[in-house]
Structures are given as structure tokens and as C-alpha cells.
Write a structure and sequence with these properties.
This protein is mainly α. It folds into two domains: 30 residues; 82 residues, Cytochrome Bc1 Complex, Chain D, domain 2 (Orthogonal Bundle). The chain is built from six helices and two strands. Strand 1 and strand 2 form a beta hairpin.
Length: 117
């Protein structure tokens, strides 16, 4: 009977420990910021000079085809902006712009561009 009780206590302890680990992992990732397309439309002045021109190519620091982002998935846009801000992706203009944006700004800009066709 004593070994059964220990086994149950061990099982309960394992379950509790797994909840604690899962809870701390969830707490490590902040919830996604909800974007607002209307607010984003007021925050894209830095973007439209390159991303709003059909077949635009930037010449600095090398010839680079600028992607059209209208209609792109919002989560993808936010992920790309975060990568530019962190240095995981790099293009001089995008690095500076992304570093100037808050998480809310990123979500709003992404919501705006994803709403375009």
C-alpha cells in the first residue's frame, strides 16, 4: 500500500511539475498584439516610398527588388519586422524603420498591408 501511495504522489507531482513548466513557457511568450488596419494606415508613411511603387528597386547598398507587401499575411509582416529590428534579417533602411516601431505599430502596419489587395 505504501508503494502505491508513493507512486500516486509521484504521478501527482509529475503532473503539477508539467503544468508549472508549461505555464512558465507560456508566460515567456507575450500574447500577440492585435493590429488595427485603420491605425496602421496612419503609420505607413515610411513604407509607401518603396513598398507602394510597382517594380521598385533600391540601389543602396546594392540593387534590390523591393517586395510588394499589399495582401501579405499579417503574421508574416510582423515576423519580418521583428527580424529586421533584432538584426536576424538585415537591410539598412528596413533595420532603421523596424527598430523605430513598437510592437503595436508593427501589428497595425501589418494589419493595414494585409487588408490591401
Amino acid at each position: 500500500m505504501k508503494s502505491v501511495r508513493l507512486t500516486r504522489h509521484g504521478a501527482v507531482a509529475s503532473v503539477v511539475a508539467s503544468f508549472l513548466v508549461a505555464g512558465s513557457a507560456l508566460a515567456a511568450d507575450p500574447p500577440a498584439v492585435q493590429g488595427n488596419a485603420q491605425a496602421g494606415s496612419q503609420k505607413v508613411s515610411m513604407c509607401i516610398g518603396c513598398h507602394g511603387i510597382q517594380d521598385y528597386r533600391a540601389a543602396y547598398p546594392e540593387l534590390y527588388h523591393v517586395p510588394m507587401i499589399a495582401g501579405q499575411n499579417a503574421a508574416y509582416i510582423v515576423a519580418a519586422l521583428k527580424e529586421y529590428a533584432s538584426g536576424a534579417r538585415s537591410f539598412p533602411t528596413m533595420d532603421a524603420i523596424a527598430q523605430s516601431l513598437s510592437p503595436q505599430d508593427m501589428a497595425d502596419v501589418a494589419a493595414y498591408y494585409s487588408s490591401l489587395k
